[in-house]
Amino acid sequence: MKVLIVGGGGREHAIAVSMKKSKRVDKLYCVPGNAGIAQIAECEPSIGVMEFDKIVSYAKKIQPDLIFVAPDDPLVGGLVDVLEAEGFRTFGPKKNAAILEGSKAFSKDLMKKYNIPTAAYETFDDADKAIEYLESAQMPIVLKADGLALGKGVLICNTLEEAKAGVKEIMLDKHFGDSGNKMVVEEFMTGREVSVLSYVDGKTIKTMTSAQDHKRALDGDQGLNTGGMGNFSPSPFYTKEVDDFCQKYIYQATVDAMAAEGRPFKGIIFFGLMLTEKGPRVLEYNARFGDPEAQVVLCRQKNDIMDVVDACIDGTLDKIDLQFEDNAAVCVVLASEGYPVSYEKGKVIKGLENFDGKEGYYCFHAGTKEKDGQIVTNGGRVLGVTAVGKDLKDAREKAYEATKWVTFDNKYMRSDIGKAIDEVERN
Ligand code: AMP
Ligand code: GLY
User: Model's pTM, two decimal places?
Assistant: First the structure.
């Protein structure tokens, strides 16, 4: 079969590598893709993920048997509906279900209505009312722009002054654009964060192995928030007890709630969880694979990805025995020095060929492009060096060893990805 992937980052590279392994896939296409994806798929770099008309025209030209929409923006914008209306078999939630990620007010109201454990909250569409509420609220407190904001629309405020400035930033100055027309004010929680991704077919949900992200730019979880500097899977903190709780109160409950609302969800639900003293709580939902969660989870999946994708579309996920290898994976992001603030692009990347034929090692491209026959840096996050090992320690050692195989000017990485693992070992 022929498959078209929509997207062009490390996540889409990981999806493409998984599909390439499938015996059922003959040819891969990707829009816009990147220099890494281009090694295994035919890419069309001139088409952006929000250019729905161009994507439809391209699909009509190549006639794929399946289209996989990976990023949040086109999912929330309704690309799946557009492609299905044109007769294409498409993987991903429709617009009315992708709202689970597209509106924090929607997802919080859903959790409240269906008793799914999450932080207490209030929603505001008026800045004065929000400030009035904050004046008697307990600090710290969390402010969230309602809509998509590249993962940046969340402000944790320690004082009333900070909270007032946050309301101004989100609702008045519209720092995150129209995402800030509405705002959720949420109780501040503490605990360890874990990501659990799942396949969903509208009624059945099958969860994947867990993962844990490192969002801050600097070692020791210091510095600014980023799209993610690396992660690992599984999380040693995601115990059987935690899983039992989430299976009982969170996962199926979310799928049932969406179906009951007339918004059946087909695709990937990403549960961002916080393991608080009172038990696991939902921090957020995403309607897609995480980036870089896909990089550490998919390389451990035993099932052919196309079998699972088909089952989600056809509503037969209950027939799938979803399995993961009993091993571990670690992904270390190689970024450009200065990310996430300002950084230079266009640096030549050397040594990529060192990954060729090395089983259990992957170099996923995030921000790269081809220029004059060379592969150069083209973003803040450049590569996701990923290794599989027998356990987390082994995978971590291998991943850090492999980070030495590639070089480029202003290469920057954290040196403590997966350090939480040592903490577990010490206890
Ligand atoms: P979100 O995009 O909702 O996942 O929020 C981004 C990050 O903000 C999360 O990964 C948490 O680290 C933090 N965060 C979000 N909500 C809360 C909360 N209620 N309490 C504490 N931290 C939070
Ligand atoms: N790694 C977090 C995300 O993809 O949203």
Answer: 0.95
